[in-house]
Design goal:
By secondary structure, the chain is an alpha+beta fold. The chain has 24 helices and 34 strands. The strands form seven sheets. Strands 1, 2, 3, 4, 5, 6, 7, 8 and 9 form a nine-stranded mixed β-sheet that branches. Strands 13-16-20-19-18-21 form a six-stranded antiparallel barrel. Strands 29-30-31-32-34-33 form a six-stranded mixed β-sheet, with helices on both faces. Helix 8 packs antiparallel against helix 9, helix 9 packs across helix 12 and helix 13 packs across helix 15. Bound molecules: adenosine-5'-triphosphate and magnesium ion. The site of adenosine-5'-triphosphate has 16 residues, from strand 3, strand 8, strand 9 and helix 6.
């Protein structure tokens, strides 16, 4: 057998199944499409689900792929076993109601033994214990002796996921030899150690599970298989683990060179090297599919993997930033199979570098918080960090839990592991609940799923705003119906429609569908699975029924306004790239008849100058009256024109390219103006951040912009009217008014304090002598706390030396204030304690410093008594 390389094996597999009449499809994005049950694609089958259920018709009944996969569930195994990565490539062959077990088994054997040349004496199949059919095929047709075929139970060899299609599996294991074994006497196929390695899993989907444990034979039986490309390579190249196969080894070596730590010298350091090697692969591929680091969902998985890699870098004592450099090696090793890596290279590196930098800051911040926590524990003489605190560090601050543990251990402290696990579980449950539904398709089951998959609709709305076509399906909100009557809501499907279904960020068309029987008002237009377009809305007159011809009219005004905003978005994207640089990628967009919103990747807020430049560029290209030219062309040809494609988006072989005078060239399926002059004018109304590294611009054009200015103008005139001036003089008038207001304020303050003084008249004859210290207690009327303080200061000055106690009833509230001079304090007076002792009498509480204290209360009737008590309290304080 030849030690084929990873890239060679991928090719051999796809070509082998192509020779068995399979259609070779490119790997799908790691981001699942229309599937809420999955965060990330984790098998070759996952993106093909609609073909398995029959909801969509596959391009061919036999398909083969090499699919990029992420399995975070395997994260704890990574670096420790020979066979797990969070990222790997899965080779697969699929049959949608075509061939079944016999062919699938025979071909897998043929590929492994004849094409690749693996020693058949080292291969062992396994079957589901209830699947006699598969057993017979292996035994009788493939001539494998019965003692070499292993039977496993449901747990290992029956594939199912909630309700939906499911079925038995047959796996193929390879015996890598005794040296990889665990040495236990019962070590054999199925043992968790690395000797017998599962390389291929054939799933025979032949049942439908109704979710309550009833299995029914499927009419259309499917084949779904998966073989880890890296695992196959490790066997073929006869190396220790997937980290030793040609392409990955190069990356692994790069890690160990960077760290200055040789591979194979220590168990701990080897694990770290392998973890970094794996994670940097995951991270690079995820970003190339448009995933950005964040605190939830896929973004969080990405962040976690990236941080884990950083963390292991620290363990290896890598001092510099290192991940972006490693990503370059990933790109080099895999760009042949995945050209998007090279295309997005600069962007990938930038995102990684930025996140690594941020994580380093996080670590420093986390160290600070942890040391505060430790100080508090020491104070309380505790040695266990609470689960909640540990989780807070981990979850809120992104601080790695093993780092927390390690630091605590150095201080002979530890974590409440159970409490931590409990906090984690609570969060997991919330996350799971937030993700919601999971049936086989990971989506809510809707009435649309029962529509015949052979029915499709085509969009003819690029050229037409009205059209005549036959109604093929009508549904109410819950079921397929023949007709809908006046007032009823539902969905209408026709053969050809001019209505644009919401997609690519552009809002859906609305309008009206008329038949000779009645009118249906279209409120929304949806892209349904399997190439159908649904018009949802309500019958407003008469009734409508299937089979009849309908006249479809799109709301022209709304379409035209949306088109202007959509075309402006293209100009905006190009302008942003011109002003900010080529790292700007579309991260989302939304256009409708009122406004446009564009999200893009950029790492800081835009300055006023940059915003003005962007606006100017867009407006210049509107004024230039550029012709908008739209063409369909093969994707390869389109790429050559330099057309801007959407990040992480999967395109078909033929793409639609929208060109605006060669200034902006983009892949786009939306509707556009014929000439940029139709956009009239463009104005940015806001710029903000929506996530790390993602900015958002909201802008207006044409009618929306005029409406905005009209509104602004109206408000300006209204404000001028109120201030009895003209818009031009408004600013000056306002600054006069503010200045005047300020001086009036000062005057009021002065008057208030004068009034307070007048209110108490001359009180100096009320001064009492308490053990040689002067005390003045006064009840003043209607003075607020600030006024009391002011008054207190004045009286204290007059008194020269002593204690002042002031009380004032202000409606049904009481304000109390005590102030004491330095010399009185020296003799024992304490304003804070004094007020504490008397505040209760006015129904309140308070306290303060020795020289100054205040309190509030709710009982004006107690003032007199409080002031008498003050004498007694001060007497007690003075020595
Ligand atoms: P294991 O028990 O070894 O984790 P599995 O039962 O989870 O494997 P399947 O879900 O059947 O594997 O996936 C199909 C194939 O994909 C496996 O036979 C294997 O070759 C490959 N594979 C699965 N998980 C990984 C992984 N984490 N890293 C690399 N290859 C994998
Ligand atoms: Mg597994």
């Amino acid at each position: 057998m030849q030690p084929y390389g990873v890239n060679q094996l991928r090719k051999m597999f796809l070509e082998f199944f192509e020779s068995k009449e399979h259609l070779v499809m490119k790997s799908f994005s790691l981001v699942p499409h229309n599937d809420k049950s999955l965060l990330l694609i984790n098998s070759g089958m996952a993106p093909l689900k609609p073909y398995f259920t029959g909801q969509e018709i596959p391009p061919k009944k036999r398909v083969t792929t090499c699919q990029k996969c992420i399995r975070t569930g395997d994260i704890e195994n990574v670096g420790k076993t020979a066979r797990h990565g969070t990222f790997f490539e899965m080779l697969g062959n699929f049959s949608f109601g075509d061939y079944f077990k016999t062919e699938a088994i025979a071909w897998s054997w043929e590929f492994l033994t004849e094409v690749v040349g693996l020693d058949s004496d080292r291969l062992y199949p396994s079957v589901y214990e209830g699947d006699d059919e598969a057993f017979e095929i292996w035994n009788k047709k493939m001539n494998i002796s019965a003692d070499r075929i292993f039977k496993f139970g449901k747990e290992d060899n029956f594939w199912e996921h909630g309700s939906g299609p499911c079925g038995p599996c047959s796996e193929i294991y390879y015996d890598r030899g005794e040296k990889y074994g665990c040495g236990k006497p019962d070590c054999t196929v199925g043992c968790e150690c690395d000797r017998y390695m599962e390389i291929w899993n054939n799933v025979f989907t032949q049942f439908d599970n109704d979710g309550k444990g009833h299995y029914e034979e499927l009419e259309q039986k499917n084949i779904d298989t998966g073989m880890g490309l890296e695992r196959l390579a490790s066997v073929v190249q006869d190396v220790d683990s997937i980290f030793d196969v040609d392409t990955i080894k190069e990356l692994r070596t790069h890690v160990s060179t960077l760290a200055g730590v040789p591979y194979g010298e220590g168990n701990q350091t080897d694990v770290s090297i392998r973890v970094i090697t794996d994670h940097v692969r995951s991270v690079t591929f995820m970003i190339s599919d448009g995933i950005m680091p964040s605190n939830e969902g896929r973004g969080y998985v990405l962040r976690r993997l990236l941080r884990r890699a950083c963390r292991h870098g620290r363990l290896l004592n890598i001092k510099e930033y290192f991940l972006a450099e490693l990503a370059q090696t990933v790109i080099k090793g895999s760009r042949d199979g995945y050209p998007e890596l090279e295309e997005k290279r600069d962007f990938i590196l930038k995102v990684i570098a930025k996140e690594e930098e941020q994580f380093n800051k996080t670590i420093d911040q986390g160290l600070g918080i942890l040391s505060d926590m430790i100080a508090r524990m020491k104070q309380k003489q505790e040695s266990t960090l609470s689960g909640d605190d540990a989780f807070k560090l981990y979850d809120t601050y992104g601080f790695p839990i093993d780092l927390t543990k390690e630091i605590l251990e150095e201080k002979e402290m530890h974590i409440d592991e159970e409490g931590f696990a409990a906090a984690m579980e609570v969060q997991r449950k919330t996350a799971r609940a937030a993700r919601g539904v999971t049936n086989y398709m990971g989506a809510d089951v809707t009435v649309y799923e029962s529509i015949d998959p052979a029915i499709t609709s085509s969009f003819v709305g690029y050229e037409n705003l009205s059209y005549t076509s036959a109604i093929t399906v009508i549904t109410s909100e819950t079921e397929i119906v023949e007709a809908l009557a006046e007032g009823e809501k539902g969905t209408v499907i026709v053969e050809e429609t001019p209505f644009y279904a919401a997609s690519g960020g552009q809002a859906a068309d609305t309008g009206i569908i008329q038949t000779s029987d009645g009118d249906f008002f279209v409120e929304d237009t949806l892209k349904l699975k399997g190439g159908k377009i649904g018009h949802t809305g309500k019958v407003v007159k008469g009734f409508i029924q299937t089979g009849t011809n309908a006249n479809l009219f799109v709301n022209k005004e709304k379409r035209a306004l949306s088109a202007r905003n959509h075309s402006a978005t293209h100009l905006l994207q190009k302008a942003l790239r011109t002003v900010l640089g080529n790292h700007v990628e579309q991260a989302g967009s939304s256009v409708n008849e009122d406004r446009l919103r564009f999200d893009f990747t950029h790492f800081s807020a835009l300055s006023q100058e940059e915003l003005s430049k962007v606006e100017d560029i867009v407006n210049d290209h509107i004024a230039a009256s550029l012709v908008v030219d739209i063409q369909n062309m093969p994707i390869e040809e389109a790429k050559k024109t330099g057309a801007q494609a959407l990040f992480g988006e999967k395109y078909g072989d033929i793409v639609r390219v929208v060109n605006m005078g060669d200034f902006s060239v983009e892949f786009c399926g939306g509707t556009h103006v014929k000439n940029t002059s139709e956009i009239m004018a463009f104005k940015i109304i806001s710029e903000s951040g929506v996530a790390a590294g993602v900015r958002r611009i909201e802008a207006l054009t044409s009618k929306g912009l005029i409406k905005y200015y009209n509104h602004l103008e109206e408000r300006l005139y209204e404000a001028s009217r109120v201030l009895k001036t003209t818009p031009d003089a408004l600013a000056e008038k306002l600054s006069h008014l503010t200045a005047e207001n300020k001086s009036l304020h000062a005057e009021i303050e002065g008057l208030k304090s004068q009034l307070a003084k007048d209110a108490i008249g001359d009180v100096m004859d009320q001064v009492q002598d308490i053990k040689g210290t002067s005390l003045l207690t006064v009840d003043v009327k209607g003075v607020d706390m600030a006024g009391l303080r002011d008054l207190g200061d004045q009286l204290k000055e007059k008194l020269g030396d002593g204690v002042v106690v002031l009380a004032s009833a202000d409606e049904d509230k009481v304000n109390l204030m005590v102030t004491a001079t330095e010399s009185a304090i020296k003799k024992g007076a304490h304003a804070g304690n004094l007020i504490k002792a008397i505040a209760g009498l006015v129904g309140g509480g308070g306290g303060g410093r020795p020289n100054m204290a205040q309190a509030g209360g709710k009982n004006p009737a107690g003032i007199k008594e409080a002031l008498i008590k003050a004498v007694e309290v001060l007497d007690g304080q003075l020595s």
